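Note to self: keep these together.
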Amino acid sequence: MEAVTINRTKLQPVSGEKIPLLNLTCPLDRKDIPLNKNWSKRPWTIPTSYPEFVDRALDFKVRYDDIWILGQQKTGTTWMQDMAWLITHNFDFKTSENSHVYERSVNLEYTGVYQPFAGTEAEKKGVSSFAATENMTSPRIIKSHLSPNMLPKELWTKKPKVIYLTRNVKDSAVSLYHMYKGLKYFDGTKEQFLDALMTDSLAYCPYWPHILEFWEMRNESNIFFISYERIKRDLRGSFKEISEFLENPCSDDILDKAVDHLSFQSMKNSKAGQTLQKIMEDIHGTSGEFKFIRRGEIGSHKDELPEGYSEKMDNWSERSLVGSGVAMDDILSFSYK
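Structure:
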């Protein structure tokens, strides 16, 4: 297919930011997306390594039986990858326990965004996230943090199942800060990091438009919108709802096993969780202090945000939601029942 022309503006580096970033727009008329919006003007912040992969993502071949796990970073998408894999793979708890989730589910754009050895050399080694996703057997569980207009075009025409995750932005931001520090993407202060998030100076920003776009599409028949908080407070009920959405309802016995298997502590201490931690350390050279699966608590920001930043982030969120007709609490508590 003909390559898409993108508009890009290099951003001034934020103090502590180790990844050079671009502000990017993609001048395509996206009438295939079920949300009436001028997508050609939709800004997006992404590492300078990504533009050469735009076409790989847009032209990616979607299958009707794919399951797509979408959402901003550190909103529970890795947790959901395992849930969706279990539901679509005959509740195979043994395999889930003994293999880390990224052996069974791939982040589509990882090679273009974060992988240290991104590009053609990585593909020759067979480690490209795009190639890995293409080669997965069905049903594929595919994760992505891309904005709607940067996702594969066929996602909007073939309409596979989509599960969208969101989370209290303050908890998500603190978790993301620790990940960036641990993976050596950022070496500034927590204040500098939070300011970068609120000024669209981190990868995958702007933050709130991503959530609001899927919020407006939440009633599409192939989209299931849920918050980390709802799952955390009612793992059993959430797993049941998701299994019904994925058209593989489960028994009470399976629900009991799922609640135990998917509890935060079980995942953190499992062989799969420990293997994932080791992979992060090997690839990124992280220290033993870094934990990919960290606290997982609702409201963890309360004892981690710098002074004044809880109110500052609340004000930022309120400004971002003006005109949307919805409050953050409405989004976090949303249920189809």
